[in-house]
Each structure stands twice: as structure tokens, then as C-alpha cells.
């Protein structure tokens, strides 16, 4: 039973393969679990100008620790229950149409229905990084304060209805777009049975990690153990595209691995600024894995200038480091500041959102007195 | 700690001059600028969707996809709420706030962005 010559493992002996594969799977699963379990605090209050008469003002605020991978339309039932049942006066509540409700941040930024909660939060964090802070401590996690409006939603800017169905459509669209970015087609997504496709959204609705990943693992690449040696798949390998990854007896095939994708689905968010999306191949021009540093220098060099080379070694310093560069900005993924040597393919496999996308949010380092 | 001289200081410890933040803000201004660049969008009818006389259009790349949908509806003479579904490369519907620039960079073929349109939901 020779194990050499398969694409799954090039140099690891058969005896070690399953251990290493399990360790890699554990590593990937760990980060996916951490991402899934990530939550952010939301503090919701009705615009005081719109608070109906006779509302209980002692209960004006609804606090929720919301999953990063969830969506506001999915939180609406509990938000609605709180305000309708506890805050608003009964007779007034009857006439309130909750399909006209919409959210703004306390700073007046419109909140989009189709953005995952974690992205809404991180986008707010980086926007706040532009403003001078009084007592900002990076150890404190402050709730995102949202203003709930009860009428006149700016539909031309919201672009989507608040219904869970519209949200599901948008979610499925993002998964397919991510699939296309990775492989140049959506065959993996459309190859799923309808029941499975619906299962992805059900997993989000119920916030069930196992239900979601039971399906998602069929379409999301993992970081394979011997990635650096893996050959790139031939461009016309139709058989690779048509064969479902779950048909592989030992685990995900390396050809479907995170380092073999055409491009990683990633978007770059600048504070109060544009969203940048482009093709991001997993390997850089020198055939080393593309890092976050490469990616940021490529797209926003004014904020992430290329590091200067190290000075040549001398007798007194055999391993000189390059001089430190001032870092005016930092990059957040899932709310965590990412080291510059993080590999983009790894982010795609381990730290993407439930919609398949890696959202990199750029914040500006604060001045200090 | 013999290598302390080589170790970079974390950003909060380095002597930030006020200029560092100014430079960052200026950099953001540069990245916020919307140039008037246009890209070619090619509309392709699917199924029974009406065919247009002209299929290639130059569209300002900073536009959101929502603007492309509205443009298409106008060109087709659609009023009100008749349903029109749009897809990129016969594969997926983008988020309406994705910009044409981003979609072009990610999905262009032969230097144009293919937008398929149909009256019924084709690819979900």
C-alpha cells in the first residue's frame, strides 16, 4: 500500500500521515470554531425623537452579545420582542410596522442588513480609530451603540429589504461569489443538494457550528500539511472540479487545498472609505506564500510601505534585521490585529467569515500625547 | 536581552510624531478619491429577457452595482417593480453595494465585465 505518488502527501510516511492530517484538521477546526464563537456587544436604543408616547423609559436600551457570523435581520425577532413587549405602550405598539425599522450607528452611519455583525462591528472600530480618543484602551471592548429608527428607511441606501429571506439570498450570493473567486466557477456550491445549501443558512439561523460546517467543509478549502510542495492543478482538470471533496477517503484533497485556489476571497475596508476587492493569488511572485504584508503593500502602500531590506551582515552583527518602519495603520481580521507575516491562504481557510469572505479592516494607530 | 536593539518597538511605544497620523489621514484621502475611470460592461440577455440594440457600455468604475441595475432597467424601459435578475459570468448575483471597479478586477474576461440579465431567477 504505497502512499508515495499521491497528491495528498509527498514526503510524509504513511504511518505519520493520518496523525499529521488530524493535527492539521484540528488546527483548522480550532480557528474556525474560534471564529464561529466570536461575539460582539451591541447596545440598541430607539431614537429618542421617535420613542412612542408612554414608553417605559427605564428600559430604553437592549443589550445583546451577538455572534460575529450572524446578521441583524436574524436578531430582529428578539429586538422586536423587547421593544414591543416591554418598552412600547400596548395600544401604540399595535400600529408600529416593524418592516420599516432600520439602524444607524450612534455616529450616524447607516447599518446595512446584508453585512455580517462582526463586519459591522469592526468597520465601526476602524471608523472610530480616526477620531481623537480620550481614554481609549485597547483592552476594553466597548459595545457598538446602534440607534433604532422606526420609520422612513432610506431604501435607496439600504439596498436590501430587512427580511430574513433577502438576507439569505444575499448570504448565498456571497458564498457563490467566494466560490467563483477561489476556483473560477461556482460548481462546488451549485453541486450541493438544495437541502445542503439551505442547511448552510439554517446553521447560521440556529447558530449551530456542526450543522453549518457539515456542509461548508465540502466547499471551503483547508490548509493542507504539505502545501509548499503541492503541484498546482492543471487548468483544465474538469475531473477535479466535478468530484466532490467528500469522496476522498482520507480527508480533503490537497488539490482543493487553500494554497491551490486561484485567489483568496478577501475584501479590504478602509475607515470611512472605500472597500477594495481584487484577485489575491495564494503565492507571491517569488513562489513563497503571499502574506498579509504583501497584500497590504500591494493595495495600500501609503499605509503599509514595503519594508526596507536588512543591512548586509557585518562581523558584529551576523543576522541584521531590517530597520523598523513606523506603522501608521493596523489590520484587523475577526476583530484581532493580524501579524504581517500571516499567510493570505491561511486566512482564507481558517479565519474567513461564514459567507466565505476574509474581511480585513484597516485602522489608524492613535497619536499619543 | 542581547537582541533588544534589533527588536522593533510595538507601535504604541515608538515615538509617534504628530505627522505620522497626518500622513495616514492624507493617505486615506488619496484612497478615497474617486477617479472618473470607466470600464466596459457587457450585458447579455438570458432566456426570454429582452435583447438590447447595444450591449456594450462604458460605466464609471466607482459606481455601485446597484447603479448598473438601475441603468439596465432604464435601458430596458422597465418601470416600477417588474423583476429583473442580474448575474456576473452566469454564476452569482453580487451584493448591490459592490463597486463596478471591484467586480471588474475580480471577474473581468477579455477586458470587460459580463452582466447577465433575466426575468426569472436563474442561478439563485
TrEMBL record, chain A:
Q: What positions does the domain Autophagy protein ATG5 alpha-helical bundle region occupy?
A: 165-221
Region annotation (Disordered) ranges: 221-258
**Pfam families cross-referenced by the UniProt entry:** ATG5_HBR (PF20637), ATG5_UblA (PF20638), ATG5_UblB (PF04106)
Q: Pinpoint the Autophagy protein ATG5 UblB domain residues.
A: 263-362
Q: Which superkingdom heads the taxonomic lineage of this protein's source?
A: Eukaryota
Q: Which GO terms describe its cellular component?
A: Atg12-Atg5-Atg16 complex; autophagosome; mitochondria-associated endoplasmic reticulum membrane contact site; phagophore; phagophore assembly site membrane
Q: Where in the cell is it found?
A: Preautophagosomal structure membrane
Keywords annotated in UniProt: Autophagy, Isopeptide bond, Membrane, Transport, Ubl conjugation
Which parts of the sequence belong to the Autophagy protein ATG5 UblA domain? Answer: 36-149
> Main subcellular localization, coarse class?
membrane
* GO terms for MF: Atg8-family ligase activity
Q: Where is the composition biased (Low complexity)?
A: 221-230
Set out the biological process GO terms recorded for this chain's protein: autophagy of mitochondrion; cellular response to nitrogen starvation; piecemeal microautophagy of the nucleus
Xref: Gene3D superfamilies: 3.10.20.620, Autophagy protein Apg5, helix rich domain, Phosphatidylinositol 3-kinase Catalytic Subunit, Chain A, domain 1
The way this protein sits in the membrane is described as:
Peripheral membrane protein
Concerning InterPro entries, the annotation shows:
Atg5, ATG5_HBR, Atg5_HR, ATG5_UblA, Atg5_UblA_dom_sf, ATG5_UblB
User: Oligomeric state and partners?
Assistant: Conjugated with ATG12.
The family classification in the record reads: Belongs to the ATG5 family.
Q: What does this protein do?
A: Involved in cytoplasm to vacuole transport (Cvt) and autophagic vesicle formation.
Query: What is this protein identified as?
Result: Autophagy protein 5
From TrEMBL, chain B:
List the Gene Ontology MF annotations in alphabetical order: Atg8-family ligase activity
* Membrane topology, as annotated: Peripheral membrane protein
Query: Could you tell me which Pfam families the record lists for this protein?
Result: APG12
Listed under GO cellular component are: Atg12-Atg5-Atg16 complex; autophagosome membrane; phagophore assembly site membrane
- Mind telling me which InterPro entries this protein's record contains? Atg12 (IPR007242), Ubiquitin-like_domsf (IPR029071)
Coiled coil, from the record: none
The Gene Ontology biological process annotation of the record reads:
autophagosome assembly; autophagosome maturation; autophagy of mitochondrion; glycophagy; piecemeal microautophagy of the nucleus; protein transport
**Keywords attached to this entry:** Autophagy, Isopeptide bond, Membrane, Protein transport, Transport, Ubl conjugation pathway
SUPFAM superfamilies per record:
Ubiquitin-like
Query: What subcellular compartments does it reside in?
Result: Preautophagosomal structure membrane
Region feature (Disordered): 1-21
User: What family does the Swiss-Prot or TrEMBL record give for this protein?
Assistant: Belongs to the ATG12 family.
Physiological role: Ubiquitin-like protein involved in cytoplasm to vacuole transport (Cvt), autophagy vesicles formation, mitophagy, and nucleophagy. Conjugation with ATG5 through a ubiquitin-like conjugating system involving also ATG7 as an E1-like activating enzyme and ATG10 as an E2-like conjugating enzyme, is essential for its function. The ATG12-ATG5 conjugate functions as an E3-like enzyme which is required for lipidation of ATG8 and ATG8 association to the vesicle membranes.
Q: How does it assemble?
A: Forms a conjugate with ATG5.
Q: What is this protein called?
A: Ubiquitin-like protein ATG12
Q: Which organism is it from?
A: Lentinula aciculospora
Amino acid at each position: 500500500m504505497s502512499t508515495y505518488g499521491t497528491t495528498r502527501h509527498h514526503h510524509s510516511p504513511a504511518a505519520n500521515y493520518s496523525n499529521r492530517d488530524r493535527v492539521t484538521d484540528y488546527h483548522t477546526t480550532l480557528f474556525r470554531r474560534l471564529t464561529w464563537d466570536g461575539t460582539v456587544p451591541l447596545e440598541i436604543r430607539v431614537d429618542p425623537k421617535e420613542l412612542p408616547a408612554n414608553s417605559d423609559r427605564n428600559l430604553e436600551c437592549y443589550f445583546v452579545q451577538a455572534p460575529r457570523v450572524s446578521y441583524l435581520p436574524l436578531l430582529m425577532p428578539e429586538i422586536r420582542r423587547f421593544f414591543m413587549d416591554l418598552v412600547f405602550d400596548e395600544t401604540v405598539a399595535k400600529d408600529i410596522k416593524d418592516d420599516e425599522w432600520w439602524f444607524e450607528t450612534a455616529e450616524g452611519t447607516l447599518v446595512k442588513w446584508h453585512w455580517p455583525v462582526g463586519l459591522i462591528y469592526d468597520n465601526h472600530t476602524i471608523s472610530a480609530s480616526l477620531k481623537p480618543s480620550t481614554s481609549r484602551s485597547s483592552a476594553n471592548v466597548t459595545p457598538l451603540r446602534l440607534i433604532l429608527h422606526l420609520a422612513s428607511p432610506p431604501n435607496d441606501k439600504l439596498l436590501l429589504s430587512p427580511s430574513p429571506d433577502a438576507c439569505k439570498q444575499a448570504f448565498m450570493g456571497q458564498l457563490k461569489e467566494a466560490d467563483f473567486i477561489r476556483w473560477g466557477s461556482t460548481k462546488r456550491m451549485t453541486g450541493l443538494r438544495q437541502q445542503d445549501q439551505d442547511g448552510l443558512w439554517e446553521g447560521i439561523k440556529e447558530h449551530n457550528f456542526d450543522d453549518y460546517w457539515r456542509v461548508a467543509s465540502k466547499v471551503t478549502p483547508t490548509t493542507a500539511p504539505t502545501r509548499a510542495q503541492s503541484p498546482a492543478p492543471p487548468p483544465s482538470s474538469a475531473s477535479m472540479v466535478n468530484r466532490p471533496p467528500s469522496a476522498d477517503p482520507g480527508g480533503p484533497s490537497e488539490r482543493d487545498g487553500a494554497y491551490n485556489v486561484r485567489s483568496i476571497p478577501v475584501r479590504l475596508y478602509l475607515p470611512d472609505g472605500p472597500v477594495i476587492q481584487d484577485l489575491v493569488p495564494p503565492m507571491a511572485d517569488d513562489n513563497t506564500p503571499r502574506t498579509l504584508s504583501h497584500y497590504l503593500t500591494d493595495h495600500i502602500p501609503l499605509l503599509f510601505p514595503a519594508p526596507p531590506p536588512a543591512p548586509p551582515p557585518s562581523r558584529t552583527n551576523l543576522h541584521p534585521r531590517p530597520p523598523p518602519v513606523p506603522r501608521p495603520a493596523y489590520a484587523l481580521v475577526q476583530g484581532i490585529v493580524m501579524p504581517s507575516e500571516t499567510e493570505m491562504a491561511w486566512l482564507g481557510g481558517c479565519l474567513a467569515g461564514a459567507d466565505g469572505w476574509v474581511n480585513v479592516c484597516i485602522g489608524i494607530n492613535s497619536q499619543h500625547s | 536581552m542581547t537582541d533588544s536593539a534589533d527588536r522593533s518597538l510595538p507601535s504604541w511605544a515608538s515615538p509617534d510624531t504628530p505627522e505620522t497620523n497626518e500622513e495616514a489621514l492624507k493617505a486615506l484621502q488619496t484612497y478615497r478619491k474617486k477617479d472618473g475611470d470607466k470600464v466596459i460592461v457587457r450585458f447579455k440577455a438570458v432566456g426570454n429577457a429582452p435583447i438590447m440594440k447595444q450591449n456594450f457600455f462604458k460605466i464609471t468604475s466607482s459606481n455601485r452595482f446597484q447603479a448598473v441595475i438601475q441603468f439596465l432597467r432604464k435601458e430596458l424601459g422597465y418601470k416600477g417593480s417588474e423583476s429583473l435578475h442580474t448575474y456576473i459570468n452566469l454564476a452569482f448575483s453580487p451584493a448591490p453595494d459592490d463597486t463596478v471597479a471591484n467586480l471588474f478586477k475580480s471577474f473581468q474576461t477579455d477586458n470587460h465585465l459580463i452582466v447577465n440579465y433575466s426575468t426569472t431567477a436563474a442561478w439563485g
